Amino acid sequence: MTEPLVPKALFFTKGAGKHRNYLQSFEEALRVAGIASYNLVRVSSIYPPYCKILTRQKGLELLTSGQIVFCIMAECRTNEPNRLAGAGIGLALPADHGKHGYVAEHHGFGMTQKACSDYVEDMAATMLATTQGIDLDPNTAYNQRKDIYRAQGLVVRTRAVVQTVEGDKNGLWTCAVAAAVFIM
Questions:
Q1: Checking phi first, is residue 34 left (phi over 0); if not, alpha (psi -120 to 50) or beta?
Q2: Which of 27, 35, 49, 148 has its C-alpha lying 20 to 30 A from 180's C-alpha?
């Protein structure tokens, strides 16, 4: 029987890039994020039990150029001058490290870095809380919901990595990337 393919660690990264070509703006953003030399495979939003969070530097040291690497990624591109584009990844960890957590990704326009950060953390925490049977009022502010999560002992911590960019004034494609990169 084959060993299950479960990540042992992950790290967060982000980057921004500009280029006259759509695809190459993405490549530039991946270079800034440090993950352009890998074959990236996008996966959904589960943070595995007992998964360690590494620094970007430590995570990159464990990868080899050309390697197939699983990641959760958000990306946003614009060629409209001054248009605010953003990509964010949020993480919510349960109190019990033997249970899975959630990673949420978002990409879109018009959100500041702080607003996008709050949004992706809120999404990840909400996904985690609903799997634990907590009924939530969607109109309740995130800070109030965080208090409910803590009172029930469900979410130890949340975090986010967000990249925002302003569209190039000369119309170059401008790309924002944020990713949670898994180490097997």
A1: left
A2: 148
Give CATH for domain 9-183.
Answer: 3.50.20.10
State the amino acid at position 176 in one-letter form. Answer: A
Predicted pLDDT of residue 58? 97
pTM of the model: 0.89
On the question of pLDDT at 90 being above 80, the answer is yes
Paired with 179 in beta bridges are: 13, 73
The widest CA-to-CA distance across the chain, in whole angstroms, is 56
- What is the β-pairing status of strands 101-109 and 155-166? unpaired
Residues 6+ apart with CB under 8 A from 60: 11, 34, 35
Q: Do 157 and 10 touch, CB atoms closer than 8 A?
A: no
Q: Where are the domains of the chain?
A: 9-183
Identify residue 175 by its one-letter amino acid code: C
